[in-house]
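Hi all, posting the design record for the shared folder.

TITLE: backbone redesign
STEP: 1 of 1
STRUCTURE INPUT:
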């Protein structure tokens, strides 16, 4: 790669660190950025810097937010007696787009996966248990992905909450086992929420 400048090579290597970006994709993105106007390229840089400096996890539900509490947690119109448990903020967004759920959320920031070295204490499960115990939560909806790890995480949370007077439900299996919420369409997710079952 001696014909490519050091800074271009560095950019390609940095882009390759992103999920789903291989060598060819990093080359395409790098050359696209090089073709952009200086203003557009710097605006992209600024947007990355702004996100890294301003965006944090909501102190209550661990959704992405620029404030200590996210918009959903601050919304008095939401049903505070229901909490929908998801793995990642992108799963929360998928459910919100259905427009059929008006409760609160709790983002685990992952799932228990021993093979990947992810244990329960690395997730926000303790914070969830604390929320359930101190707030008047009637129903906990397990919306972890329908995978072995997602189901295992939901079972672990259910076992931690045994003895608590709370209804624990699971999304209906309109979502195929082994798939992820991120790729489920709006109608499928809407049916899954409406047809949720006792966990």
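Okay, here is what came back for every position:
SEQUENCE:
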């Amino acid at each position: 790669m001696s014909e490519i400048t050091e800074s271009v090579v560095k950019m390609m290597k940095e882009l390759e660190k992103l999920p789903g970006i291989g060598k060819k994709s990093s080359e395409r993105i790098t050359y696209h950025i090089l073709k952009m106007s200086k203003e557009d390229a710097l605006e992209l840089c600024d947007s990355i810097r702004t996100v890294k400096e301003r965006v944090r996890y909501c102190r209550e539900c661990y959704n992405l937010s620029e404030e200590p509490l996210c918009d959903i947690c601050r919304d008095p119109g939401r049903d505070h007696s229901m909490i929908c448990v998801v793995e990642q903020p992108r799963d929360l967004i998928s459910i919100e787009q259905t427009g059929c759920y008006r409760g609160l959320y709790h983002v685990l920031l992952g799932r228990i996966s021993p093979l990947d070295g992810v244990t329960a204490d690395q997730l926000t499960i303790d914070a969830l248990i604390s929320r359930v115990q101190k707030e008047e939560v009637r129903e906990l909806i397990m919306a972890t992905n329908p995978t072995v790890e997602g189901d295992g995480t939901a079972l672990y949370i259910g076992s931690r909450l045994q003895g608590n007077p709370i209804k624990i439900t699971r999304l209906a299996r309109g979502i195929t086992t082994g798939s992820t919420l991120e790729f489920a369409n709006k109608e499928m997710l809407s049916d899954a929420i409406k047809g949720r079952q006792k966990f």
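COMMENT: The longest strand covers residues 79-86.
Let me know if anyone wants the other runs.
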